[in-house]
Design goal:
GO molecular function, one term: heme binding
Distance between the termini: 36 Å
CATH architecture of the largest domain: Alpha-Beta Complex
Oligomer: single chain
Number of helices: 8
Strand order of the largest sheet: 1-2-4-3
InterPro entries: H-NOX_domain_sf, Heme_NO-bd, NO_sig/Golgi_transp_ligand-bd
Radius of gyration: 17 Å
Protein name: Heme NO-binding protein
Structural class: alpha+beta
Order of helices and strands: HHHHHHHEEHEE
CATH class of the largest domain: Alpha Beta
């Protein structure tokens, strides 16, 4: 597993619940390291251990923890670079949705070693979509749940009102149902496409 993924989960745990919580989780799960390096790779079993440990420590389902991580990735100031990368997908939430097919390629431009699952947006009506996450990974599917949290946070970021539901997983894919109730429900968070001078 790419170190950036483990580092993002570590940052979520540390920033949200504190360094003492993270330290205890590492000891309880007998993790080989307590601070993950972004450019290293780790045994995928380590990632599974972290996620299982978080679910146990928080008394939540693993899927719920994954959605919380997805929301954190967009809403936390410590991950502002990812939010900026995502906001370059368009000026509205619908533009953003259509840009998601290209997200794995955009991520590879920034981090060539990081491979995300294939993604496909399907339109079923003017406000009804499904988002398909495809993967060759045979382990427990989890990226789709991260995407639910990320999509929810991005909808808030754009000021859109949406209903999201993870529709389950089958071998090689997860499906998320997206219903756009209102494209401009609130003002949304400020974002400037142009670079600001120091």
């Amino acid at each position: 597993m790419h170190g950036l993924i483990n580092q993002a989960i570590e940052r979520f745990a540390r920033d949200t619940y504190g360094p003492v919580f993270w330290d205890r989780l590492c000891r309880r799960q007998n993790l080989p390291v307590r601070a993950f390096e972004a450019m290293q790779t780790y045994d995928p079993v380590v990632t599974e251990e972290i996620l299982d440990g978080l679910a146990f420590a928080l008394g939540k389902g693993r899927d719920e923890v994954l959605e919380d991580i997805g929301t954190f990735l967009v809403s936390s100031p410590s991950t502002a670079a990812l939010r900026r990368l995502l906001r370059f997908g368009g000026t509205s939430f619908i533009d953003f949705l259509y840009s998601l097919d290209d997200l794995p390629a955009r991520v590879r431009l920034a981090v060539p070693e990081l491979t995300l699952p294939q993604m496909e947006l399907r339109e079923h009506g003017r406000r009804s979509f499904s988002f398909v996450v495809k993967s060759d990974d045979t382990r427990k599917p989890w990226f789709g749940h991260v995407m639910v949290g990320l999509l929810r946070a991005m909808a808030d970021d754009y000021g859109a009102l949406v209903v999201l539901e993870h529709m389950g997983a089958s071998p090689g894919r997860e499906i998320i149902a997206i219903m756009l109730l209102e494209a401009a429900y609130t003002e949304g968070r400020a974002f400037d496409l142009g670079a600001r001078a120091p």
